[in-house]
């Protein structure tokens, strides 16, 4: 281990990790493209693009150059009362890119905070119109929206890591996605009973990521739009995982022809280089905050919101999307993942194999030894991080064909063993 590791490791507290029993993290020297270069000389092919962020691979020269230029000019300046070109340019570009009239961009610094802002925005949308009783949300089983208190409260209450904090969390209505007649009826009943206290509906469109890489079809999403319109509720689409081509269209909502009232972006927004998130609202939502009354202003303001370095990285990432064929690449990756993971279908203990865009999933009956499985992937030369009963691949969108083949081959080999 390098000296910096030995000196610092005892002082680090890792995410979702039992610090007493966890094996030491792998010291990383550098990254490049889809590769992680470890300090001991080993090289891992990254199958998950650093929690789905590095959509153009690591160290893309266009992003590096843009961030370097911005670093010379101004790494940061507060966003209250001061404006800068990277943020205003990015807001205008996002407004042009997003469906419908999602034209008003509130920047923050992580996905969970973007969710918190959306929940407050939707609640205050009603308060500003004189309705104080609409403080509940309709959300979905299998959903995951982050680890802050509000975000946990609209995530699946039983699955995953949020059960522990049940006593802390505000109670919302968490139901099945309306996938078929039975779930659609239950969804409508909940709406009927509670629509008077609801501010909005929050969903991860087409793919529920951290809740289990669960897919639903465009029709389910369209049902939510129709129901929200009928009840006058705001539809919030959390595209923090699905946004920026991951599911095969630039945003998952595009595939359903659905435009939400509020959309959330983060992760691949900066090409996975710097922390940045956006809560983007329509003109209808924004209009309810326009008034002579200062109390009608949106009551939120992260210190590092619209950080110029992060905005410069995001603008560069959008330049890359415009210049490089990401959507055709995702289509090609989808085909390769489907073919490469197909042999897993025949393996004992495999429940399902599914692919959507650049997301390939092998769902197992269960994983008995998660730590052991993770280390076997490292031994196979790949960075793959199973969770729950899920092994998945979400590589960089510009990954080489032979690298996808290596990843799927490693998944098949490790699971077979
Ligand atoms: C759909 C979705 N929403 C919100 C979040 C939270 O984002 P962050 O980890 O940046 O707070 C995540 C993170 O995985 C996510 O997948």
What can you see in these coordinates?
This protein starts with a helix and ends with a helix. The protein has 2 domains: 3-56 and 324-416, Aspartate Aminotransferase, domain 1 (Alpha-Beta Complex); 61-323, Type I PLP-dependent aspartate aminotransferase-like (Major domain) (Aspartate Aminotransferase, domain 2). The chain has 417 residues and is α/β, with parallel strands linked by helices. A hairpin with a 2-residue loop joins strand 1 (28-32) and strand 2 (35-38). Helices cover 37% and strands 17% of the residues. The mean pLDDT is 97. Pyridoxal-5'-phosphate binds next to helix 5.
Query: How many β strands by DSSP?
Result: 16
Structural domain tally: 2
Strand order in the sheet with the most strands: 4-12-11-10-7-5-6
| Structural class based on helices, strands and sheet pairing | alpha/beta
Distance between the amino and carboxyl termini: 29 Å
Please give the share of residues in helix.
25-40%
User: Class of the largest domain in CATH?
Assistant: Alpha Beta
How many helices? The count is: 14
Q: What is the element string, with H for helices and E for strands?
A: HEEEHHHEHEHEHEEEHEHEEHHHEEHEEH
- Ligands, deduplicated: pyridoxal-5'-phosphate
Shape: globular
Sheet-strand content, in percent, reads 15-25%
What's the topology here?
Layout: H1 3-8, E1 28-32, E2 35-38, E3 43-46, H2 49-52, H3 61-73, H4 85-97, E4 102-108, H5 111-127, E5 136-140, H6 149-153, E6 173-175, H7 181-194, E7 198-203, E8 207-208, E9 214-215, H8 218-231, E10 234-238, H9 252-256, E11 262-265, E12 277-282, H10 283-287, H11 308-323, H12 326-341, E13 350-356, E14 359-364, H13 370-379, E15 382-383, E16 390-393, H14 401-416
Parallel strand pairs: 3-15, 5-6, 5-7, 7-10, 10-11
Antiparallel strand pairs: 1-2, 2-3, 4-12, 8-9, 11-12, 13-14, 14-16
Helix pairs in contact: 3-11, 4-11, 12-14
The chain binds pyridoxal-5'-phosphate.
Pyridoxal-5'-phosphate (PLP) binds next to helix 5.
